Automatic annotation (TrEMBL), chain A:
Pfam families with a match to the protein in the record: Peptidase_M16 (PF00675), Peptidase_M16_C (PF05193)
Superkingdom, natural source: Bacteria
InterPro entries: Metalloenz_LuxS/M16 (IPR011249), Pept_M16_N (IPR011765), Peptidase_M16 (IPR050626), Peptidase_M16_C (IPR007863)
Peptidase M16 C-terminal domain segment(s): 176-351
Domain Peptidase M16 N-terminal: 18-135
Molecular function terms from GO: metal ion binding; metallopeptidase activity
Protein name: Peptidase M16
Keywords, ordered alphabetically: Hydrolase, Metalloprotease, Protease, Zinc
Transmembrane segments: none
TrEMBL record, chain B:
Keyword vocabulary terms for this entry: Hydrolase, Protease
Domain Peptidase M16 C-terminal: 211-384
GO terms, molecular function: metal ion binding; peptidase activity
Residues of the signal peptide: none
Domain of life: Bacteria
Domain Peptidase M16 N-terminal: 79-176
Protein name: Protease
InterPro entries, A to Z: Metalloenz_LuxS/M16, MPP/UQCRC_Complex, Pept_M16_N, Peptidase_M16_C
Lineage: Bacteria, Bacillati, Actinomycetota, Actinomycetes, Micrococcales
Amino acid sequence: MTAISYPLAERTLDNGLRVIVSEDHTVPNVAVNLWVGVGSRHESPGRTGFAHLFEHLMFQGSRNVASGEHFSALMDEGARLNATTWFDRTNYFETVPTGALELALWLEADRHGHLLDAVTQENLDNQRDVVKEEKRQRYDNVPYGSALIDIYATVFPADHPYHHPTIGSMEDLDAATLADVHDFFRAHYGPNNTVLTLVGDVTPEEGFAAAERYFGALLPIERTERPRHAQLPPLGEPARLDRVGAVPNDRLYITFRLPVDTTPDYLACSAAVDVVAGLASSRLMRRLVRTDETAIAVGGWTMGLVDGAGLGAVTVDVAAGADPEAVEAAVCEELARFAAEGPDEAEMESVVADTERSWLSALASLEQRADHIGHHALLTGDPAYVNTFVDRLKAVTAEQVREAAGRWLAPEARAVVRYLADAGAEVAA
Amino acid sequence: MSDSAASEAPNAATSAATAAAAATAATTTVPRPAVAPPEPWSFPVGTTHDLPNGLRLVTYDVPGQYVLSVRLGLPISLRDEPQDREGVATIMARTLDEGTAQHSAEELARLLERKGVSYGAGMSDAGLSVDLDVVKGNLEPALDLLRQILTEPVFPEAEVARQVRTRLAEIEQERSVAAQRAGHEFVRTFYARDDRSSRPTGGAPETVSAITREDVSAFHARHVVASGVTMVVAGDLEGVDVLPLVEATLGGWRQGPSRDRFLQRPAQLAPDRSRIVLVDRPGSVQTELVIGAPGPDRSVDGGWAPYPVIGFVLGGSPNARIDAVLREEKGYTYGIRSSFRPRRAGGLFLTSGSVRADSTAESLRLLVEILDSGRNGFSDKEIRSGVDFISKTAPGRYATADAIADEAISMALDGRTTKFTTANLRDLAAVDRSRADGAYERFADAAGLGRGDTRAAGWTIVLVGDAGDHREAIEGLGLGEVTVVSDAG
C-alpha cells in the first residue's frame, strides 16, 4: 500500500481568494484550476441551465481579451484547457508549460474580474444555439440519453436544487437576457467565492505571489447565499417512472437518495453500492449476469453532492427475453439480504483495494489532482481530503456499511426509472 | 468520480467582441505577461530486454507515478479470423479472464479486485491489446494473475456463450447510437467489400452467434503466444526489479512460431468509395456526419509531422476552420473534429460530428468547402499555432504512466519505438507553411480529391439522419448522388 501525501500550502488573499499550491516538479507544467461556488443548484425555477450557459460566455472575451482569444492564446503556448458546470459548482482549468503560468493567471483574472465589459447579445445568442446542440448531442439523440434527467426528477422533490439537471430547460435558456448575465456574474463571480489551485512546477511562494499579482486587485462580491439544505431523508415509498421507446434493450435505474458527500455514512453507502453492483465481482454481477443470466450488464455508482443529498444507483441492462419486473425484484432481494448480513471480509478488501488504485490513478495527473484539491477546498472545506480519503474509507467498518445500506439503500426507498424497448418500434430508429 | 463525466463542458469558442458596459472592479489592470519558451523535451527513454521466448519487455521509470501501467501488444490480425466466425478474436479477448486452470471466472474477478488490479483486453486493426493497472506494491501478484490469464485460460462454455450474448446485445446498442452507426457505414463504404476492415471489428450477428468455445480456444492456442509480443511496464519503478518478475511469470509463456511485432498489410479500398450514403433515421433531431479520405501513415514521404498540424488547423481545436464557422458563427453544432489516423500501412483522414437537423445540407456543404480549402494553402499563423500546440503540450500529454505505456505499445504495434515520438517532435519544429501546403497537396492527390465529375470527388461521406427531410437538399448540393440505407425491416 502506498501512503498518499501530496504537499499542500494555502493562503487567502485580502479579497477572499483562497489559493492552494501543491508543488511537484516531475513535469515542467502547472495545472491552473479555479472552482467557483456556483452551479445549477443555485438556479431558480424559470432560470434553469443558466449557470452552464454562463460558463460558455466566459470563453467569449473579457475586458482585455477578444472572443475566442482565451482558447487561442493559451493553446498557442501549449495549454490544454476547458471548463465544466455541475450541480454544486463551475470549474475553469488549464494545464500549461511552466513559462505560461503567468499568462494563464492574467487571462483568468481578466475574465473572472472583468467579463461584463465584453458580453454581447450576439455572443449570448450564438452560445445559446451551441448549448442547444450540446443538449441534442448528449441527451436527445442518444438512447437512454435522458435517463439522468429522469432520475433527478424522480428521486428528488420538485423544490429541491437537484431536481433539475445542469443542462436545464431550453425554454428557460430562450428567456435568458443580457441583464441576467450581468446579474449572475455580479452575484456569484468574485474572489471570495472562488478557489484557485496550482499544482505542478511552482513553489508555494511563487504561486502565492503570482496569484496576488493578477487577482489581488479584484474586488470581493457581496455574498447572499442561502444556507445549504438540511439532509433529505430516504424516500418513504418507492417512486417510479417508465419511458417506453426505441432503445436496444430494457434498462433499469434503481436509485436512492444518499447522505451528503464525504460523511462516513456516504462512504459506507458508496462501499455498499460497490459490493452490491459496482465491482466486477459484485453480488448482482454474480447473480443476474453469471447465474440467472437475466442481465447483460450490471453497474453501480454514487454521486457525492453537498446540498442536502447525494445520489446512488444500480443499473441493469436486462437480457433479451427476461422479465424486467423479476429482475427488479431480484435486485431488491439482494439489497435486503445485504442490509441483513452486510459485506464479508473479502468484499471489504476488494472495495478498499479497488478504490485505492482508482484514487491514485485519478491523482496521477497534475490536472486531476488540482481538480480534486479545488473541489474539496471549495465544497467540503478540506483540500487535504486528497491525502486522507483512502484512510477514511478504510476506517469504515463492515457493520457501518450494513447499517447505512439498511437505511439508505432499502428497497422501499428506491426510485426506479425504466427505459423499456417498445416491441413495435424499430430499434435503430 | 462520476460527476465530471456528466458535467456540461463548452469545449470551444471564437468570433469577434466589443466592449459593452462598465465592470464591477475599476482598478488598473496588470500588463499582459510575456511567456518564457519551454525547454526542449524528449519522450522518456525506455529500457528494453528481449526474453528467450520472444517476449520483448520495455520499461519506463516515471518517478511519482504510483500506479504502474502494464500493456501488452500482440500482433494478431483480424484477417486470421475464419470469415464465418468473425468476432472470435474479440470474444477470445473478453473471455481470457473468465476462468483459468486454477480459478473460476468469479474467483479470478475477486482475486484481481483484492489486489487492486484493473484489467482489460481488446482487439483492433493493429492487434490484441492487454491492459493492466496496479498499485506499485502489488505488481508481483498482478503479474502472476496476468500469466494465468494469458497462458492458462480454459474458456468455459457458459462464459463463452455469455460473451457471445453480450456481443449480440452490444451490436444492437452500436446500431442505435448515431455516431457508431455512422462509423460502421463508413468502413462498409470506404473499404473493399472483401477486406476485413470493411466489417465490424467485433463481428456481425450471423458470425458472432456461430462462435463456440472450441473456436475461441483454437484461436487462442494459435495466436496468443509470446513470439512478437511487446510488453511495456511504466511507472515509479524505484525499488522494483521488473525483469526478474516478468521472467518468473511470463518467461515460460509458449513461444509459438516466429512472427513480426506488427501487422504489415494495407487495407484495400473500395473502388467506388467516393460517394454519399445517408442512413435513414426518421425523426432525428440531429444528423451525424462522417467525411473521410485515405490518408498517410507515419512513413509517408515528406514526414509525418505536418499531418497532425493540418488536422488541428482544419478541425482539431475550438478555433479551427470548421468550428469557427459551424459552431461559433452559425451555431449548428456543439463541435466537429478532424484528424489524420495513421495505420501501419496507409491511414485515414476523418472528420466527424453532429449538427442540428435543419442545418444538415448546409453543414455538409460548408464542411466539404472547408476541408477542400486545404488545397488553397494555410497561413503562417495557422501552422505556427498547430505546431506550438502539439509540441508544447507533449510533456503534459505524456506525463502519466498510462499515457506513456499507451504510446509505447501503440508505437510497438506500428513497428516503431518511442524514439519516433521524440524524433517526430523534433521534426515538428521544422514544419512551416510550405511543408504543410505540400503535405496537404500530396494527401489530396493520393486521395483523388477534386478529381472526378462531382465536387466531393475523393471523399467518402456518411450521414445518419432523417432521409425524408434531407435527401433532396443534399442531392441539390451537387456533391454527388445519394444512396439511402434503411435499417428498418
